[in-house]
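Sample pair:
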Amino acid sequence: MADYKLEIMPEPEEEQIALLKLEKKGQHPIIKGGGKDNCLCGMCGNTICKDVNRNQIANLGFQCPNCGAFNWLE
């Protein structure tokens, strides 16, 4: 298992990037998978993607359910 810190980005325009977010607030992941990587919010360190393969989430944006920061994997 490896942890990767996501890049912080400004709030994207609607057509700029596919953005995943949860309505439920708190410290929990948006995606859980069967891979070997964890991706952490670049602002607060919350686990946004748990047990994924990094190549599966390339070019996706995530709004952290804990702090609200916009993140992506460069």
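The chain has one domain: 2-13+20-72.
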